[in-house]
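Question (not urgent): is this output format expected?
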Amino acid sequence: MAVMIRFARAGTKKKPFFHVVAADKEACRDGKYLERLGTYNPKLKVEERFKVDMDATQAWIKKGAKVSETVGHLLKAASKSK
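Got this back:
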């Protein structure tokens, strides 16, 4: 089983909200996931948009999980700001 760290959409129409999740690569976008790692709300101020548990994310990456391109950019930006 290949694990991906990616977004799962949870918002309504015209009000996007995303959960950052560790999920099976073959699972559908909003389907079953293994663990919820954080949130992303593009409607908030820049510094409040992305919240993630870095320890849990790093643990999944050490286990071999791949990170999606978009989540990877946000993780890199979050690590630089701290």
